[in-house]
């Protein structure tokens, strides 16, 4: 467990260092994710390798790690005040627009390029 | 009697007590998720936020004190984000033939979500600082904060917006994708990761490993796309 976590933190550190050296706005963990992906492609570790077990263990509880930041939303609710209407409409509206644009573009291009699809089985929700 | 109550309250307000409330709230959320047969509203993160939010209100704990007490939990978001490479690695074969659709979709999606947020907010009378703060909300929280800061928006509010839209996506994402008739698993993950970042990815990981893997990738690429495109779009938007 600790060995796997050490690997993950190592890649996060690598991400932080590269992001700072290149002065990127991307967060260190996101860069670390891309480095770990390249590493896993090159090394192809066994399914029970420590880094895979620790990482899968953390991902099962991904929602837990958002709670401290999320409680800040409750603390901020009162501040929204008169601006709640533009906030709610802009948030939900642009969420829907973004979701549709990304989804339809990806599916449309697959069709256009004659690429194989990866559809859910019929009847699944 | 009073002193017993006081010392109980003191324990509840201590970092250990606040950690216990947070973990307990999360477990209550997981229990509710199982009991309701994975109902979309029963997201453990939402239940835990409600429980912890009410608890710190009742205990009269300042949010900043709560935040530092639970830093130990928030810390693991970094390594967990790194770990999103793992489902992607396992789903590597599914990247073939999807790279061009993926890149184009993420770039178009970043432009669409930035501009639609700004125009909707402006239409309803939001001031410029609020428009700027809303423009970055689709990005993962640290990116949203950083971009809002450099634009001149309100950084703490950016964090609130990013996390809120993440939770909204975790609740409403799969149903909305169904209504939009998007059935390709890779496109589904890609779409939700682009607008609801890591919290959206956490829901997609429960739906299907492919959807979770592409949501994680999409979160990373969208963070990149939004941070490159927002400064350019800002020249035209304001």
Automatic annotation (TrEMBL), chain A:
It is a multi-pass membrane protein. Its main location: membrane. One of its GO terms (cellular component) is plasma membrane. The keyword Hydrolase does not apply. The chain crosses the membrane at residues 25-42, 62-79, 85-107. It is found in: Cell membrane. Keywords: Cell membrane, Membrane, Transmembrane, Transmembrane helix. It comes from Nocardioides humilatus. Pfam families: LrgA. It comes from the Bacteria. The keyword Membrane applies. This is CidA/LrgA family protein.
From TrEMBL, chain B:
Keywords: Membrane, Transmembrane, Transmembrane helix. Pfam families: LrgB (PF04172). GO terms for cellular component: membrane. It is a multi-pass membrane protein. The chain crosses the membrane at residues 40-56, 68-86, 98-124, 157-180, 213-237. It is found in: Membrane. It comes from the Bacteria. InterPro entries: CidB/LrgB (IPR007300). This is LrgB family protein.
């Amino acid at each position: 467990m600790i060995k796997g976590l050490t690997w993950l933190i190592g890649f996060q550190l690598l991400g932080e260092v590269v992001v700072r050296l290149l002065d990127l706005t991307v967060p260190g963990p996101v860069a670390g994710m891309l480095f770990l992906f390249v590493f896993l492609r090159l090394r192809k570790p066994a399914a029970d390798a420590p880094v895979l077990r620790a990482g899968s263990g953390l991902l099962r509880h991904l929602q837990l790690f958002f709670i401290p930041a999320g409680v800040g939303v409750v603390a901020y609710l009162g501040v929204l005040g008169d601006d709640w209407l533009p906030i709610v409409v802009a948030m939900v509206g642009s969420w829907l627009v973004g979701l549709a644009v990304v989804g339809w573009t990806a599916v449309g291009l697959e069709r256009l390029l004659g690429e194989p699809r990866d559809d859910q089985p019929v009847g699944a929700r | 009697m009073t002193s017993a109550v006081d010392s109980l309250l003191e324990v509840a307000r201590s970092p250990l007590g606040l950690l216990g409330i947070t973990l307990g709230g999360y477990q209550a959320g997981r229990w509710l998720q199982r009991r309701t047969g994975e109902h979309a509203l029963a997201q453990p993160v939402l239940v835990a936020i409600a429980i912890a939010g009410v608890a710190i209100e009742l205990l009269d704990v300042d949010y900043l004190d709560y935040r530092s007490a639970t830093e130990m939990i928030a810390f693991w978001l970094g390594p967990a984000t790194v770990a999103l490479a793992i489902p992607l690695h396992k789903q590597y074969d599914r990247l073939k033939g999807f790279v061009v659709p993926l890149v184009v979709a993420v770039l178009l999606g970043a432009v669409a979500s930035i501009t639609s947020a700004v125009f909707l907010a402006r239409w309803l009378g939001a001031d410029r600082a609020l428009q700027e703060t809303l423009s970055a909300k689709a990005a993962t929280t640290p990116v949203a904060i950083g971009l809002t800061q450099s634009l001149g928006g309100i950084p703490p509010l950016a964090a609130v917006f990013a996390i809120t839209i993440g939770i909204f996506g975790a609740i409403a994402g799969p149903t909305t994708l169904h209504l939009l008739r998007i059935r390709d698993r890779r496109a589904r993950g890609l779409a939700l990761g682009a607008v609801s970042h890591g919290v959206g990815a956490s829901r997609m990981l429960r739906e299907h490993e492919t959807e979770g893997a592409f949501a994680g990738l999409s979160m990373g690429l969208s963070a990149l796309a939004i941070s490159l495109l927002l400064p350019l779009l800002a020249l035209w938007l304001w």
